[in-house]
Amino acid sequence: CGPCRELGPRLEAAVKAQGGAVILAKVNTDQEPQLAQAMQVRSLPTVVGIVGGKMAASFQGAVPDTEVASFMKQLLEAGGGQVAPSGPAAQLRQLVEAADAA
Q1: Whole-model pTM?
Q2: Which residues participate in catalysis according to the annotation?
Q3: What pLDDT digit, counting tens, does each position of 49-67 carry?
């Protein structure tokens, strides 16, 4: 979608600026409708931040950079300053990096 393409690079830059404390994973809602329903996706883009297996923050739409920064801050605060570097988060990071490399 147009708003997704507009938000994507800005969101990727914000994640990169966190120095590995935040992992970005994209989901194709057409291919994963059950996940979209579970995450209560009503419109695209929908961005959900998960910390410790629980939804910590979310937003919908191609929001301005100030809202993206606020979202990142909420995630870092919810994670005590950093998303866990081991366990499921590390596995997700490896999957994301493998998908990016493909």
Answers
A1: 0.75
A2: 1, 4
A3: 988 778 889 999 999 999 9
